[in-house]
Amino acid sequence: MRSAKILFLIVIALFSCNKNELTKDQALSLLEQSDRYPYVHSYQIYVKDSEDGKRVINAGLEKEGLVKVERNRKSGNNEGNVIEFTEAAKTYFLEPDKGQLSSVQRVKVAEEVLGEVTSLEIDEEGKSAKATYTTKFTGVTPFAKLEKKAFGEPRSHEVKFIKDKNGWRMERSE
User: Can you give the pLDDT at residue 8?
Assistant: First the structure.
């Protein structure tokens, strides 16, 4: 009977210590609960712009059958579209931003999703913590060639957590 009481007290002590401590799994869970991820990366293509026409040609999107580009258009001539999207490209279309021009088409480039929490530093008082975590890219589309980002490489980020009377929460970033 006495050993059962001791075991019970040890279990209670362990749980009360862990309640105050932020773990990597808890930090990842808080990140998952935020509205940061998954994040859809997009690119805006100006369909009347001959410079964007050159970009999509150089990216090989015309050869892939995603766009058709009208050649021999003088720069500054905004009558009619320089770039026409094929049916194959329409699967990558995104909703226009509020107030977006009709001559702009937003396309999906990739989706950024959470990876893992790689490090966690809790301050001496146990009231704040800094976590380093990774994200990776999934669903990378052919339009990613228009961006200068390396979508094959994971990215590293930092976030700060604050402990209040309700437990740990992410600090809001501006």
Answer: 39
Partners of 160 in beta bridges = 130
Sequential DSSP letters for 14-39: HHHHHHHSPPHHHHHHHHHHSS--SE
Are 88 and 143 spatial neighbours (Cβ–Cβ below 8 Å)? no
148 DSSP 8-state letter: -
Q: Are strands 83-85 and 67-69 parallel, antiparallel or unpaired?
A: antiparallel
The whole-angstrom separation of Cα 79 and Cα 130 is 53
Q: Let me know: does 24 contact 117? Beta carbons within 8 Å.
A: yes
Report the pLDDT value the prediction gives residue 75, as an integer from 0 to 100.
Answer: 61
pTM of the predicted structure, to 2 decimals: 0.75
Q: How far is CA 21 from CA 15, 30, 46, 107, 171, in A?
A: 10, 14, 50, 42, 17
CA distances from 34 to 39, 68, 120, 158, 161 (A): 11, 40, 18, 14, 12
The helix or strand, by DSSP H or E, that contains position 138, with its residue range, turns out to be strand 128-138
Query: Which pLDDT score, from 0 to 100, does residue 4 have?
Result: 43
User: Hey, what are 92's tokens?
Assistant: 């990558």
Q: What are the CA-CA distances from residue 75 to residues 51, 52, 55, 58, 132 (Å)?
A: 8, 11, 14, 17, 46
- Report, as ranges of residue numbers, the positions in the chain whose pLDDT lies below 50: 1-18, 174
